[in-house]
Design brief:
This protein is α+β, with helices and mostly antiparallel strands and 325 residues long. It folds into 2 domains: 212 residues, Jelly Rolls; 95 residues. It is 41% helix and 26% strand. It is built from 12 helices and 10 strands. A hairpin with a 2-residue loop joins strand 2 and strand 3. Helix 2 packs antiparallel against helix 5, helix 7 packs parallel to helix 9 and helix 10 packs across helix 11. The termini are far apart.
C-alpha cells in the first residue's frame, strides 16, 4: 500500500484539514455576502423577500447575484486547489448531474449554489419527464449566474389535490434571470440546457406538512405522492426496513406511530404494521376506525371491512377485538 506523503504527514500536522473553515469564514465577512447571510434568519422566520433588501438584491433585482456567486465559488475553488485535503464546512452534493454546495442556512432557509451539467442531465433524463409535473411545497428563489436553458413554469390551478389543472408558461433562462417558485402550486420544468446551468438559490422549507405530489401534465391525474415532512420520510424508511427484516418485535412501536402525527404518516404506519404483524396491525386498524372525528376513521373502517370479507382470519379477529371493546 502506498500512502501519499501529504496524508502521512497529517497526524503530525493536521492544519491542512482545517484551512477550508478559515476560507469560509473569510468569505462570509465579505461586504456583499455578510448582509445577505444576516437576512437569512429573518427570511427563515417567514419574512417576504421584499422585506429582506440584501436578499432582494440577489433574487429580485439580481444585480448582485453574479458577484455573490463568484465570491463563493472562488473561496471554495481557491481553497480546494491550495489545500485539497481540507474538510470543507459547507454541505455539498453531487450525483453526476447536479452539483450543489450549501453556502449558509438558518432555520427553514438555506442559500446554495447549484450547477446542472447539461450533457449528463440529457443522458440521465427520464423520457416521461416532459409529461409529468412535480409540486414540492416550499418557496424557491433562484438567480441564473451562468449558462442558459429553456423550460416551462407549470402552475396547478385546481383546488382538488387528487387531480390537477396545469397551465404552462414558457421561459428562457440566461444570466440575470430571476425566478420565484411557490412549490405547492408551481414547478419549473427544464426542457433543454445549453452546456451547464449555474444558479444561486434561496429555499425556505414549508412550515406545514403538505405532501409532494406528481401529476400528468395533460390529464392532471396524480401519479405519485410523498411525505412532505422529512421526519415522516425517515420514519417511513425505518418502518420499511424493519418490515423487510421481519422484525415483528417492532410491530407495537410501529402501531403506536399510527396514533399520532400526520394522516399520511399514520396511514403508512398502519400499512407497514399490517404487513409486518397482521394481528398487531389489524388491532391498530380497528382502533383508528373507531375514533370519532379521526380523518383516517372512514378509510380504516373500509379497509377493515375489505380484509374481513376477503380473509376469514381477519373476520374472526375483528369479532374478538370488538367483543373485548
Amino acid at each position: 500500500m502506498r500512502i501519499d506523503p501529504a496524508i502521512a504527514a497529517l497526524p503530525a500536522d493536521p492544519a491542512p484539514l482545517f484551512g477550508a473553515g478559515e476560507a469560509a469564514r473569510a468569505w462570509t465577512a465579505d461586504p456583499i455576502v455578510a448582509p445577505a447571510i444576516a437576512a437569512l434568519a429573518r427570511f427563515a422566520d417567514g419574512a417576504g423577500i421584499d422585506e429582506c433588501p440584501a436578499l432582494a438584491r440577489l433574487f429580485v433585482q439580481g444585480d448582485k447575484a453574479n458577484a455573490f456567486a463568484a465570491k463563493a465559488a472562488l473561496a471554495a475553488v481557491g481553497q480546494m486547489r491550495s489545500a485539497p485535503l481540507s474538510l470543507w464546512p459547507w454541505r455539498h452534493f453531487s450525483n453526476g448531474v447536479l452539483h450543489s454546495v450549501t453556502l449558509a442556512s438558518a432555520g427553514r432557509a438555506s442559500l446554495s449554489l447549484a450547477l446542472i451539467d447539461g450533457a449528463a442531465w440529457n443522458g440521465a433524463r427520464d423520457p416521461q419527464a416532459p409529461d409529468l409535473a412535480a409540486f414540492q411545497p416550499g418557496l424557491l428563489h433562484a438567480a441564473v449566474v451562468a449558462g442558459s436553458a429553456c423550460g416551462r413554469i407549470l402552475r396547478n390551478r385546481a383546488n382538488d389535490p387528487a387531480a390537477a389543472r396545469i397551465e404552462a408558461e414558457s421561459i428562457a433562462l440566461a444570466p440575470g434571470t430571476t425566478l420565484a417558485i411557490d412549490g405547492e402550486r408551481e414547478a419549473l420544468a427544464l426542457d433543454a440546457i445549453g452546456g451547464c446551468l449555474m444558479t444561486l438559490r434561496l429555499y425556505r422549507q414549508p412550515a406545514g406538512d403538505a405532501p409532494a405530489r406528481q401529476y400528468q401534465v395533460v390529464s392532471g391525474a396524480m401519479v405519485h405522492q410523498a411525505a412532505g415532512d422529512r421526519a415522516d420520510s425517515r420514519a417511513e424508511l425505518a418502518m420499511a426496513l424493519l418490515r423487510a427484516m421481519g422484525r415483528e418485535d417492532a410491530a407495537p412501536t410501529i402501531a403506536a406511530l399510527s396514533r399520532k402525527g400526520t394522516p399520511p404518516a399514520r396511514w403508512q404506519a398502519l400499512r407497514e404494521c399490517l404487513a409486518l404483524d397482521s394481528a398487531t396491525g389489524f388491532a391498530a386498524l380497528l382502533e383508528v376506525a373507531g375514533r370519532a372525528g379521526d380523518p383516517l376513521a372512514a378509510p380504516a373502517r373500509a379497509l377493515a371491512e375489505t380484509l374481513s370479507a376477503q380473509h376469514p382470519a381477519f373476520a374472526r379477529a375483528r369479532e374478538e377485538l370488538l367483543c373485548r371493546a
